[in-house]
Amino acid sequence: MEATLSRPAARCCCLLKTTTPSSTSRVLLLPSQQQQTRQKSTRARHKAALNIPAHPSFLSQPPDSTSPGGSTTLIFNPPSSAPSVFQTPFKFLPKSDPRRRATLGSQLFSSSVTTQFSPQSVDVSSLPTIFDDRSPATTPKNHSLTKEDVEEMRRLRLADPVKNSVLSLARQFGCSVMFVMMCVQAGKEHRDKVHVEPHAAAREKWGPKKREAKMERKRRMEMLMRGEI
Amino acid sequence: MMKRLRIERATGQLLVARSGAASNPGSTALRSSYRAAQVVPVRHQSSYSSFEAESQHPSPIYEEDGTDHSRFPPLEKLPPLTSTLPSPLPERALQSAKLAALHARLSLSPKIPLQTLARTLVDPSADPNPHFNNTSLAFLGSTIINYHASEWFMVHYPRLPMDVFYAAMTGLAGPAPLNRIAKSWGIESAAAPGGEVDSGLLQFSLDSPGESVLGFGYTRTIVDKINKNNWQRSVNSKIIYDDDFGQVVSRPKPKPKPKPKQQEEEQEPQVELDQEQDQDQEQDQEDGEYLYNPLPPKFSPTSYGSERTRELSEKAHANFVRAVVGATYAHCGREQAKAFVKAHVLSRYLDLERLFAFKHPTLELALLCAREEFDPPVARLLSETGRLSRTPVFVVGIYSGNDKLGEGAGATLEQARLKAAMHALKAWYLYSPGEGARVPSDVLESGEEEGLGKRMRTWEPVYVDIGELISR
Fold this sequence. Notes:
The complex is a heterodimer. By secondary structure, chain A is mainly alpha-helical. Helix content of chain A is 45%, strand content 3%. Among the domains of chain A are: 1-29 and 42-54 and 110-121, no CATH class; 147-225, no CATH class. In chain A, helix 9 (166-173) crosses helix 10 (177-183). Chain B has 17 helices and three strands. Classes of the chains: A mainly alpha, B mainly alpha.
């Protein structure tokens, strides 16, 4: 599947197969109900669909390429790969950097996405966000909490930590989850009751396969954080 | 203003005989090791001719190490009692083919004599006498290597976090890479150190680690507890206390007490070390004692190739490379030493990207954007494939406002988001002003032309980051 993804021609196919350029941004993200599965009955159709023309950059013919003195064309169609971390984004360049002063900024570091399969730039705000309730961008902000509010938050949380969970308090006071956790921490007995004991009881029931799978998952996460996968 | 240090005098005793060489901390320990059956040669450059004269005498049948030289003649003609010495005589450097080949192979300047190159190959574990081992040169070399490496990182990657900086220093100038450099130079090591060994072989002992001070740093009072309990140390304390690689400076082991000397030796005034040794040896000869190397080497099949022997070997090889840099500096000067370090150490490839490990990348990125007053980061899905399949791929980009900071592909949305955040953080930390950025020591270089020299000598301040994002 990864190989399929990294083939620019396949992406091109994806683009060609569907509709007009106006709905390009929606084309890229197939909704789950439109996800195609391969069956025996659909084999011929899929095979036909995979018979795709070459990338436009290979097909484009300069008008006077036939004449011997005509201009040569540079075909730039690199395989897709992960971007390098040594290409600093424009925003991360310090003020003193000459790359910032140069006018190349607007060209090199375009603020809109230009994907390989759609030459037209896509509006960034139209791309779907990935929900993260801890992210400051996706949580509502209320910076006007007073000292009394914080006291009240503490009192509620310590009085009944089950009912007044961190998330419910964050919603109630219009602040982030992180802020609630910074203001008040439930006691150790609550933490054990909610987070340690049930998990320990569940862990006891795990068989060898599940235990191994959990270990693998943990190990994969550590590898991910070290940048190994 | 700084007073200029006369470093070239540091190796002077090799070329000029020093009469007052008795002020040597290891002299008491040395005396016992030099006790052999007969006269021990005096190791000085000036005494070389006397050795040649001595060697005309018929050599004893039984050497002090018990070898019957009439049955097993030595491969080359050695001065008498060479095997009583802990390291080969400096004069023998001129006859060593290995040493000459090494000198030529490294394209060292002819200003560096072969005797100095021979001295760089003697580890303190082989010869405890600091006038004959490479400790002083290795210390000098380590300061030069570490200076140039840290300067290079500081200018080329100004935003490296301190932990990564330490890791990068270890990866570029630590013992492991220097060991590899020495191996790539084709250095072979002697099976055991001794005076009869070829001067072109690296000599270190697997029995005693040897004492050498190689770097700056303080010994913490709780160093034993840190080592025992594997305590974490804060980055600030690493900067203050620890060595150039962020490693704990361990306490120097207490020296073994010198063996009780004879009464007359104690009353002797501090005369020249070598004469004293001679007298000791003569006395021993009269007593018929055999005290050279009193403990037999504890070689067992497991002692070879163990963790400890590898560590000792790595240390000896690394110190040799440092000593060569120190010798280059002492004989040829600053610019040559810098060119040597640049050619052999700084030119090595180090993948800085792989030195990073994160705990909460999304949180760290949010903190970064808050500190730099960027828009808060938002993860957006760029493309996906096979959401319902066994191997889905999601490509997620992290945006601050309309600017893309990082991009990552993963099998789950969460994984892709974390990868994108880590990519953005690495892109921040690995900002580089470019390959052509000048380091401070470039200012000291004397330009060939006048205009060039003037331009080179003016220093434009480089970009220095305001500090770490998360204090660890």
